[in-house]
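Milestone 3.1: sequence recovery, worked example.
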């Protein structure tokens, strides 16, 4: 029987954040409603996390040869990350409800024994009111931590706080 080993934050693959093209999900020629998702990761003291890897996954539009539906971005000296992608579409949910358009977001960083998982929804989307995951978060202030804000043109921003006041809701997966 194998012996369990300690969890690692990102292991030997840390160098993968050195490929900034992975943050451009449009790099293979995908077309559609394009957008930028940006944000800043801060620690419990409000200081930028400058060495994190942020991954996004989206179920719709579906992955294809020209659209990977997955991206990875390292944070810069200000804790900022940035993705260019297609705007997510609704996906099947529970019963008659669809899940609101969203990204699955995973964060790897020093000091994290396990990756943190959350979601990024779009502030003002009418489908948020019936999304099965958002509806599990009763406190409206906590629910807001999963909402990306529109910053003009095709840019949306979701700042992520790892702990402390205004901590982002993380999912237990």
């Amino acid at each position: 029987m194998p012996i369990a080993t300690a969890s690692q934050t990102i292991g030997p693959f840390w160098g993968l954040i050195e490929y900034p093209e992975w943050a451009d999900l449009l790099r293979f020629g995908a077309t559609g409603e394009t957008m930028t998702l940006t944000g800043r990761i801060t620690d419990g003291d409000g200081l930028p996390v400058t060495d994190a890897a942020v991954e996004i996954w989206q179920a719709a539009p579906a992955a294809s040869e020209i659209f990977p539906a997955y991206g990875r971005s390292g944070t810069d000296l200000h804790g900022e990350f940035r993705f260019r992608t297609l705007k997510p579409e609704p996906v099947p949910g529970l019963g008659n409800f669809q899940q609101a358009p969203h990204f699955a977001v995973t964060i790897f960083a020093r000091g994290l024994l396990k990756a943190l998982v959350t979601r990024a929804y779009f502030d003002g989307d009418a489908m948020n009111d019936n999304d099965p995951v958002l509806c599990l978060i009763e406190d409206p202030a906590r629910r807001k931590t999963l909402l990306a804000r529109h910053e003009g043109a095709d840019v949306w921003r979701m700042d992520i706080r790892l702990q402390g006041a205004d901590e982002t809701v993380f999912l237990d997966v």
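The chain has one helix and eleven strands. The longest strand covers residues 34-42.
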